[in-house]
Structure formats: C-alpha cells, structure tokens
Amino acid sequence: LPALGSRFNFTETVLSPDLPDLGAKTAVSTKALMSETIQARVLRVIATTQRIPLEKVKPDSTFEELGIDSMDSINILFDLESEFDIEIKDEDAKKIQTIREMIDGVTYLVDSKVNPTPQAATE
Amino acid sequence: MGVISALGHDQQAFWQALASGQSGIGPIPQEVGPVPEMGMNQVRFKNGAAVLGYDAEAYFSRKTLNFMDRFAQFSVIAAREAVAAAKIEWTEELRESAAIITGSCMGGRFTDEIGYWELFHNGRTRVHPLTIPLGMSNAGASHISMEFGLHGPAYTISTACSSSAHAIGNALWMVRSGAAPLAIAGGSEAPLFLGGLKAWEAMRVVSPDTCRPFSANRSGMILGEGAAMLVLEPLERALARGAKPLAEIVGFGMSADACHVTQPSAEGAARAMRSALRDGKLAPEQVGYINAHGTATEANDRMEAAAIHAVFGSHTGALPVSSTKSMHGHTLGAAGAIEAVATVLALRNGILPPTANHSEPDPECDLDVIPNQARAASVEVALSQSFAFGGLNAVLAFRAWP
Predict the structure, then answer these.
(1) In chain B, which end has fewer C-beta atoms inside a 10 angstrom radius, N or C?
(2) Known catalytic residue: B293?
(3) Angle CA(B187)–CA(B188)–CA(B192) in degrees, nearest 5?
(4) Are B202 and A78 an interchain contact pair (Cβ–Cβ within 8 Å)?
C-alpha cells in the first residue's frame, strides 16, 4: 500500500448520502472520529470473519496473535471489500501483514472513493 | 498417449511446444459463457491457457455434442489419440474387462453455470433437461466407455489438482494386480467459465500476466484447460502383442497433509514422493528429472523446493526440475495427466522441457529449474508430482523404456 498517513483528507464531503452505511450517519465531521469509525468497523469485520470476540481484536494485534493465516487474511479482505464497497488489488493484498495495515488501507480506499483525486486514481 | 491443451490439439503439437519452451498462455477468449454478460470483462485477470482454434464439430456429431460438456469432449479426444497411438485392437474379451479411470476437479460445471444463470439471472423457472448428465464429473469416463464400447470397471476420481495423477496411479494398481488387462487413464478439465474464473480470482492466486514457477518475481498461477489420456497395460502383454512401450510406470505414492485446506505441507509432499520411490524400488539417485507441480504460487513453489531437498538431499544439485505449467497452464484435474505425458515424452526424447517465463531465481527455491531452454539429457527415472488443495498428494514415477 502507498504511504497512507499523509493522505488522510477527511472533510465534510466524506459524508455524502451515497456512502454505504458508515455506522455514523449522525454528524461525524472530525478526522479523528471518522478514522475511529472505520477502524471500529474493520475490527468488527475481522472479529466476525474470524469468529473471535471483538474485544480480542486490537489495531495492534498481530495476525499470529489472532490465528490469522494467509487464507484467513484473504477471507477478511473479501468481507472488508463488501463492508466498505471497495476493491483491494491483489498486489496490495499480498503486502498486508498487520491489522493496522488493514485499517490504513481501508481508510485510504474509502477516502479515494469519496474524494477521487487524480493522484489517488492513478495508484 | 493423447493430449489436447493450450499447446495444441495433439501430442505432436504438445511436445513441439514443450521442447521449444513455447508458452500457450494468452488472453482468455472473451466469450467464456453463452451470453456477453458472462464474459471476461467481469474478471480482474485476463490471461489463461485456453484451447484455441477448437472446433467441436470437427470431432463430434451435433447430436453427440448435445450430450457433452466441453470437459467431456476433451476427454474423448485425448482418449481417441491415446488408443490409436497404442494400436489397441479391441476384442470382445478386452472390451469386457478394460478399465477407464478419469480425473476431473470441476467436471461439467460450465454446464451447471448456464443452468444457474437461467434461474438466478434470467429469472427462468427451469433449466435444460441435460444439465445433470452434462455436469457430472464422471461424464468423461462415461463417454470414453461409449466411444470404444468398453464394459469393464470405469470411474472418476476428484481430488482437485491431483485428480488425474490419482487416476493414473489407480489404473497402475488395477493393471499391476491383474484386475484389468488394460486401462485408459487420465484427466480432463474445462474451467474457463465465469463462475469458476471468479472463484479463482477471489482466492487472489491468479497472475495478472503469466506463470513464472520458481521465479522470485512470480505473480501467481495461470488457469488452463485440456485433457490427457494414457493407455496402461502390463509390460509382458504389451510386448507380446508387438506394441512399443513409451515408458514404464514404476511407482505411485500418495499422502494427505492433514493440516490445512489451502496451505501445502512440505512434509506431506515429501511423504508422497518417498512413497512413490519405495513403490518403484527406486533409489533417489536414480531420479534424473522431476516434472514439478510448480504452480507459481509462493506457497507451492517454496514448499515443493523444500520437499525435494528433504527427499533428495545432496542429489538435489544434480536433479533438474521443471514446471511445464509455465506453458500449458494449471489444468487442475487434468494437470496430473498432462504432466505425466510431458514426463514420458521427456524420457522418450531425451529432452527435458524447461520452466518457461523464468526471469529471476528465487533463493528460497534452490533448484536447477531448467530455465527457459529445454535441455538434452538421458534420464533413467522421472517423477511427476501433483499436490492438491485439501492437502491430497499424488506422485508418479516413470522409467525410460529403451
């Protein structure tokens, strides 16, 4: 995945009505809260897909701690694609090794989707 | 032996391509289903190893074709070539007892998919009445039996990518034990239909460009279609009728990883290899070529390299290994048979087919992979290896016939 941290650019425009259910239809306008919402949803998807308690899934958990192998990871990415209506490229999927990378990657893709910039579109 | 694949419609074309390192990988034709909405524009990857220039009506009557899925057509075409090349003269007695054992992973699911499309997409309330007989995985064996009028044991094995290696191994046992005086064995697959392609796409194991087994810059597997059939008979019987054996099948080994449904285990693979050597009473040093499973996924290639090192130890350095999937693609249930044919032709011609598309050695796969150029070598024994999803492994050992 490209360097994600520098690309966070959440603004009010993120909350367009055509977004899938972000679980935050009430006013969520700050960058921090928005990211947290995406993070919470990613963690929930991981817990559901892996059939493990949500409280065990932390942003800094390792795949090993959660018993996630390569096929599990592909299952999770599939469910994340459905949850956020995004498409994760194979070459990006191969690089993802941590929960944090999943969160950052989804955040980046959701951002690219609602704020398509020439820069994002070419990546 | 008979073979139809992306490398051509017969054994001669197949060998010509293998010996010259020519790959049959390219864009999958747009029309993978009967209507444009079922086409390749819905699939993220574009390339495969399709049988091109295939005119079913050149092989079968229209009426017969109504009863045959593409995979069953390939089965019969390969069997016809194998039986003709072996110069089998059918007697009533032979027809009563000859065996047919085929392998297929997906069978006629292309046909099933058309039925589902009618139901779920077109909102129809009924599907074609021949959906069941066209879709069944044993259709290949059944149509071969009808083609030659064979009334003996006939069945189909479905062990994913090991299917036809298991089929040939079982045929070896039947012929060796005297249960059948002759067997037609091999496999067939026609997996290039939308639902199948989407399922492979979802696993994220398919290459966006080509198949580079054992290369550090590999990008995944390439799906292929086709069939191969072999005629097996006891050596004495073949010699007595004046036949010219192509090679001896001397060993068959099987194992189950029993660990993970998609992650292969080097230990499981090694057990199947050792079992094939033991069955053939072979010393590791006698083996001079391995036709590898070599799918060009990182999981397979590194596992397979580790298994070869575990079984062959210091002999590994003197043991050329190639993956012909780099040319004919991964034909799933037909792979074991297509690669068995490649292995026998290598022994017969004294030429080892290369691993095509090899561009960057992978330090984790420390093998002599015969990169890109076929190599002349007189080899006594060769292995053909198949390691299936689900951890079911089958390895065949062949000895050159002088």
Answers:
(1) C
(2) yes
(3) 150
(4) yes
